[in-house]
Amino acid sequence: MVQIKIESNILGANEILARKNRNIFTEKKVLLVNLMSSPGSGKTSILEKTIELLNGQLNLGVIEGDLYTDQDAQRIEKKGVRVIQINTEGTCHLDAGMVGKTFVHLPVDKMDLVFIENVGNLVCPAEFDLGEDFKVVVISTAEGNDKPLKYPLIFREAKAVLVNKIDLLPYTDFSLEKIKEDISKINPSAKIFMVSGRTGQGINKWNQWLLEEVKRKKSI
Amino acid sequence: MHEFSLMASIMDTIKETAVQNNIARVTKVKLVIGKLSMVLPDSMQFAFEALGKDDMFTGAVLEFEERNISCQCSTCQHLFEVDRSYRFSCPQCGCTEVEVITGRELYIDYFEGDKQ
Fold this sequence. Notes:
The structure holds 2 protein chains of 2 kinds. By secondary structure, chain A is of the alpha/beta class. Chain A has helices at residues 12-28, 43-54, 71-77, 96-102, 147-150, 152-157, 176-186, 203-219, and strands at residues 2-9, 31-37, 60-66, 82-87, 113-117, 134-140, 158-164, 191-194. In chain A, strand 7, helix 7 (176-186) and strand 8 form a beta-alpha-beta unit. The longest helix of chain A is centred in the N-terminal third of the chain and has 17 residues, at 12-28. The relative contact order of chain A is 0.19. Chain B is an alpha+beta fold.
């Protein structure tokens, strides 16, 4: 019997590709944001409203991750921004290689901000660095309060958390106090935005923050 | 669910190293998994058995070492463990800027096998 020491990171290959993506966006001074949530939290609705209310202040691109369909991409395209579709064919998350392959179809030089809409899932996407500047997690009031403590990694890794469907709050048992408390316990520096992708409530505040982050990226 | 793709890449890495070292049969694989990682040992075990049929992994044992979550405070350098209440702030000085030291591990430690 022989023992072979490997000590190799299981996600090492992904991390090399993520670094490559990050270098491209650093060189071009374009902000890359990885948007994650469980299915149905409203990532696409938030993106639609974000694009609408930014009203041309930024040149945007969206990389859409989806298992099989291009329904979300079609919705985003209607808002007049460049969309690239990735179908993962059953894989539950995007990886850095899939994202890197889309860059040839994306005029990154002409952009200020590119969103990656990850596959709806709070588990697997948290593990995969895509080379983004930061991660943003969406959680909706209809999902219940237990998500941060059930899926701590994704909330720990996020720079901002959007609490969506705030317009539905009166019809749920969701507690804003509790969600703020749990998020700030796991990730004290996370920015929390209360939004509604449907009504547009809170989206301007989120957009203001995005504009500042874009400015910061350009000044580096 | 990503455990299957992770396990496939683990097995590829091991196969490659085994061939380089003239190892015909793998008998044991040891992984280190941090408690903050979103990887379930049970699903890894299932993937290992499902993917390891009819080749050099037949009969091999998969072993895990789980690592607790520990952090270091950026202000007072205090080292502390984080339990399942996931409070990432320093219990000594209250500082919220803490660095995760352990708990994010996800790596192949070693494997054992028999030479040809």
